[in-house]
Amino acid sequence: MNNNVSAVKAAYEAVARGQVEVLFGLLADDIRWRATGPGPLAGEYIGKAEIGRFFGKMGETYGDTFRLDVVDVLGSADRVIVLTEEKGEYRGQPVAWRSAHVYTFENERCVSFLSFQDDSYINFWSARRSGVE
What is the CATH number of domain 3-129? Predict the structure, then answer.
């Protein structure tokens, strides 16, 4: 297993224990973090301070209901892909989805993160954007 795959796996395990600093230790100072989709977390965040803002918005959106399970971790020399199953509640309404998280590494630092969500997530947030709840 390559070092980046091991490091990302360890970061997900640490974040599950509330040790977000392990993930932040993998990130380049000028990381570009992009969350796709129509939800409230969508957008591009640049730098570690912005990533902190992303996680703050996640807490505001899902409270303590958010859960993430790692399904698989795949990697090459400079890319790691984490397949996940995620769920939470927004205003008392449950939402569950699958995601792919793509990490790109340069010199053992993650310089880019990109997440893709499935149709369940997209449909849930699209309905809220159009006023249907």
Answer: 3.10.450.50
CA–CA separation, 32 and 122 (whole Å): 22
DSSP category for residue 96: E
- Confidence at residue 1, expressed as pLDDT on a 0 to 100 scale: 57
Q: How confident is the model at residue 77 (pLDDT cuts 50, 70, 90)?
A: confident
Report the predicted TM-score, pTM, of the whole model to 2 decimal places: 0.93
Q: Within a 13 Å sphere around the CA of 61, how many CA atoms are in the beta-carbon half?
A: 18
Q: Which two tokens stand for residue 56?
A: 């703050």
Residue ranges covered by each domain of the chain: 3-129
**Confidence label for 132 from pLDDT (cuts 50, 70 and 90):** low
The average confidence (pLDDT) of the chain is 94
Please report, for the chain, how many H helices and E strands are present, in that order. 4, 6
- C-alpha to C-alpha distances, 61 to 5, 66, 78, 93, nearest whole angstrom: 29, 9, 32, 11
Q: Is the pLDDT at 13 greater than 80, yes or no?
A: yes
Residue 76: phi and psi, rounded to 5, are -130, -165
Q: Are 38 and 125 in contact (CB under 8 A)?
A: yes
